[in-house]
């Protein structure tokens, strides 16, 4: 019996060793997989500012719930320029790391380091230090002392705009701190450059404390800490938007209220307001006493918005005033920031003499070379207008008008004519009404009012995807595919201007109820 027991024990021990060996191999595989997942990258800073849950869901979410989007959409959202190497090549000399080396980050890093040791300017290099990995658009060598020699490196990213929001600044700071580890010198500045070669710099040390606070938050998410529920417009850009909506709605979080920031959310949590119902039920005067540094109008706006979400009924604060003119023009622009082109200026005209005849018209640029002619046609159209007003939704149309006027010129009289006769319906709406919506974008508002787009999934970014697809197919022998895409682009733009018209007409018909409605209520 004893001998048998020993025999069985030995066999059990061998089996256990065999099992542990395979378990150890599995653990090593899982560990290596997690480490590859948990590298801190520049992309994490962009994702964090759009929606912190994006990072968490990418690692821990169910893949089947992820919505896939064309790569071009990501470029648009990130403000990137198509063929950035060509843009840089017009303004700076550089050597490009071979694309095939970028498939393996270690190989890409070694190739980058070799070029850095030679003092070369580098396009799409890979920077690595421990678990930090960055891929700036350009590493530029500058005269000075570093561990590399008589030069040191600074970082550039190529963007469609020189606006420096935090997600762009923090990505560049991240790259610069990796550089500091590699070359022994921290660059004082980092840069963005646009398609025309205009540069904008910022001082890294001015934002270093904010950067590290953000980095620590991201690292907690990478380690598995799920961010608190929060809904923001950036969530729409993520592949996990449906989960953001459902989870935030599930706990009725106060961030469902339009324009509440994460800082606002934290302050409201501190005073016991954690849900939309809490905000709707709160006494605004008591809240003002607890939030003395907040304008009272801000508290009233949040209160009104929460009550509308609960009741699912709009609230009209005041009757909006609109000018009485002979011609109303509803205007919308489509642009491709990755190619730096404004390719479509579309509008409908509603005239007093024939209010039922609202025909869609447009000016279109087949490519960048036709943009100046499109602009000239629009100026001619503007010059011929009299007794009119141009309605647009949000600030973008005025921004593009200023950009095209600066780029191609325009008579001062026409610039003033445009600016003096345009009305932003988004501003009119938020000043006059509160709607039971999480967002006040054109599609959100017009969709709530009953407008239906021909393509319900379409948006401005999708129009850019179509435009790029059209550019690829418009010169094919069989032009039917290209024509069908162009028709889709134009129909989407027409829907946008007709949706703008619907919002204006709805606003025109509204007035406060007999019971006094005011901001002080």
From TrEMBL:
<protein>
    <recommendedName>
        <fullName>YprB ribonuclease H-like domain-containing protein</fullName>
    </recommendedName>
</protein>
<dbReference type="InterPro" id="IPR011604">
    <property type="entry name" value="PDDEXK-like_dom_sf"/>
</dbReference>
<dbReference type="Pfam" id="PF13482">
    <property type="entry name" value="RNase_H_2"/>
</dbReference>
<dbReference type="InterPro" id="IPR038720">
    <property type="entry name" value="YprB_RNase_H-like_dom"/>
</dbReference>
<dbReference type="InterPro" id="IPR012337">
    <property type="entry name" value="RNaseH-like_sf"/>
</dbReference>
<dbReference type="InterPro" id="IPR019993">
    <property type="entry name" value="RecB_nuclease_TM0106_put"/>
</dbReference>
<feature type="domain" description="YprB ribonuclease H-like">
    <location>
        <begin position="329"/>
        <end position="507"/>
    </location>
</feature>
């Amino acid at each position: 019996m004893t001998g048998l027991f020993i025999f069985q024990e030995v066999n059990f021990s061998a089996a256990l060793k065999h099992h542990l060996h395979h378990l150890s191999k599995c653990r090593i595989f899982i560990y290596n997989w997690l480490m590859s997942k948990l590298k801190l990258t520049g992309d994490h800073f962009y994702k964090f500012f759009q929606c912190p849950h994006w990072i968490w869901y990418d690692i821990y979410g169910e893949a089947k719930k992820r919505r896939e989007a064309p790569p071009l959409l990501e470029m648009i959202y990130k403000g990137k320029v198509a063929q950035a190497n060509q843009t840089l090549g017009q303004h700076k000399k550089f050597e490009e790391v071979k694309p095939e080396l970028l498939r393996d980050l270690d190989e890409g890093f070694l190739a980058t380091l070799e070029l850095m040791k030679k003092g070369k300017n580098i396009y799409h290099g890979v920077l690595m230090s421990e678990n930090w990995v960055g891929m700036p658009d350009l590493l530029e060598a500058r005269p000075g002392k570093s561990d590399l020699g008589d030069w040191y490196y600074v970082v550039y990213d190529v963007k469609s705009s020189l606006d420096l929001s935090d997600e762009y600044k923090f990505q560049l700071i991240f790259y610069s701190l990796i550089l500091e580890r590699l070359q022994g010198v921290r660059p004082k500045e980092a840069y963005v450059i646009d398609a025309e070669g205009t540069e904008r710099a910022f001082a890294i040390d001015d934002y270093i404390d904010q950067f590290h606070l953000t980095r620590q938050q991201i690292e907690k998410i990478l380690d598995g800490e799920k961010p608190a529920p929060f809904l923001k417009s950036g969530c729409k850009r993520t592949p996990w938007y449906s989960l953001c909506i459902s989870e935030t709605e599930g706990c009725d979080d106060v961030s469902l209220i339009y324009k509440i920031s994460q800082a606002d959310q934290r302050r409201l949590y501190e005073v016991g307001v954690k849900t939309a119902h809490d905000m709707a039920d709160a006494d605004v005067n008591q809240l003002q006493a607890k939030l003395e540094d907040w304008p009272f109008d801000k508290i009233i706006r949040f209160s009104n918005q929460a009550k509308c979400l609960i009741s699912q009924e709009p609230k009209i604060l005041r009757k909006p005033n609109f000018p009485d003119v002979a011609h109303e023009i509803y205007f919308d622009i489509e642009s491709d920031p990755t190619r730096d082109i404004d390719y479509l200026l579309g509008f409908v005209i509603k005239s007093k003499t024939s209010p039922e005849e609202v025909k869609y018209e447009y000016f279109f640029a087949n490519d960048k070379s036709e943009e100046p002619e499109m602009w000239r046609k629009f100026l001619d159209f503007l010059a011929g207008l009299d007794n009119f007003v141009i309605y647009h939704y949000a600030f973008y149309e005025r921004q593009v008008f200023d950009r095209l006027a600066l780029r191609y010129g325009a008579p001062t009289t026409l610039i003033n004519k445009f600016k003096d006769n345009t009305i932003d319906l988004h501003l009119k709406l938020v000043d006059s009404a509160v709607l039971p919506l999480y967002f006040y974008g054109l599609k959100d508002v017009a969709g709530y009012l009953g407008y239906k787009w021909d393509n319900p999934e379409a948006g401005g970014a999708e129009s850019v995807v179509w435009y790029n697809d059209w550019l690829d197919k418009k010169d094919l022998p069989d032009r039917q595919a290209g024509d069908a895409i162009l028709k889709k682009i134009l129909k989407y733009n027409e829907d946008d201007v007709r949706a703008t018209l619907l919002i204006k007409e709805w606003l025109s018909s509204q007035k406060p109820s007999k019971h006094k409605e005011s901001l002080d209520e």
